[in-house]
Write a structure and sequence with these properties.
286 residues, alpha+beta, Metallo-beta-lactamase, Chain A, globular
Length: 286
């Protein structure tokens, strides 16, 4: 197995929304806001080369939306999905699997491209992966999340015939089991941010790496109260974070961040204030 960090650009979101109840006087030191209270965040995907499979985890927000849409989210920077794939010697046609942690626009928007009057898969040779519970949640969105679940990002995947839906395993002893997906690749399910979000957990160079998606968008979100206002069930996120961070610290996991504007990975350490960041480093330094 080989892993590659793939940056699909940066975008901006309101700092208060990203840090929830934490006051700006605290979070602004971690990710300084601009004059509109907006902070910059990465759209960092993960590419997994495993035998004859080339698996892309998440796709960024893509470029098919109109100017009004991008006026809200300020897509910026020189990185694009195509440029980042090419830097590692790959193209869209090489991707065999697109694994979507969840179907919010900043995670799945790049999965489709505009084609004529409609939309087509951006990775023509790939199977697209979601799960049954999250798919049902996304295609019949609640009022809180429907601005993040865009029909043009979701329904054409099913219409293409290239969508596969996984089944979330039942709870055992109060805990959800992980679901195998590929060699050295299993899936953790969490539902505080949105229903049945999937976190890839990889065994790589004798270490465990977890792609954090929106459970921990950045290293700044590691302290327990730092929970996004976007989360549908913040108290569940709190429980999921506490459980995961304890497990990750005890077992020396590496965390890979999708949205941290600077840092790709970190380890954890115990401190007097609880579990906190240990070392910060790039994926290719493992």
């Amino acid at each position: 197995m080989k892993l590659y960090s793939v940056n699909a650009g940066h975008f901006k979101l309101d700092g208060g929304a990203m840090f929830g109840v934490v006051p700006k006087s605290m979070w602004n030191k971690l990710n300084p806001a601009d004059e509109n209270n907006m902070c910059s965040w990465a759209l960092r995907c993960l590419l997994i080369e495993d035998g004859d499979r080339l698996i892309l985890v998440d796709t960024g927000m893509g470029d098919k939306q109109d100017a009004k849409f991008f006026g809200h989210y300020y897509l910026h920077g020189d990185d694009t999905l195509d440029k980042s794939l090419a830097a590692h010697g790959f193209s869209r046609e090489d991707i065999t699997d697109v694994f979507l942690t969840h179907l919010h626009f900043d995670h799945c928007g790049g999965a489709l491209i505009r084609q004529g009057e409609g939309f087509a898969p951006a990775f023509p040779n790939a199977i697209y992966w979601s799960n049954e519970e999250h798919w049902d949640w996304a295609v019949q969105p609640n009022d809180r999340e429907k601005a993040s679940f865009l029909k043009e990002n979701i329904l054409p995947l099913q219409e293409s015939g290239r969508l596969q839906l996984l089944k979330k395993p039942a709870a055992t002893d109060g805990k959800l089991a992980t679901l195998p997906f590929a060699d050295d690749f299993s899936i953790r399910f969490v539902s505080g941010h949105t229903e049945a979000m999937m976190l890839p957990q990889l065994h790589y160079k004798d270490r465990t790496i977890v792609y954090m998606a929106d459970l921990l968008p950045s290293q700044a979100h590691i302290p327990i109260p730092y929970i996004m206002a976007y989360d549908t069930r913040p108290l569940l996120t709190l429980q999921e974070k506490k459980s995961f961070l304890r497990e990750a610290a005890d077992n020396h996991y590496i965390l890979f961040f999708e949205h941290d504007p600077v840092y790709e990975c970190c380890t954890l350490q115990d401190t007097e204030k609880g579990v906190r960041v240990g070392e910060l480093f790039k994926l290719n330094e493992i």
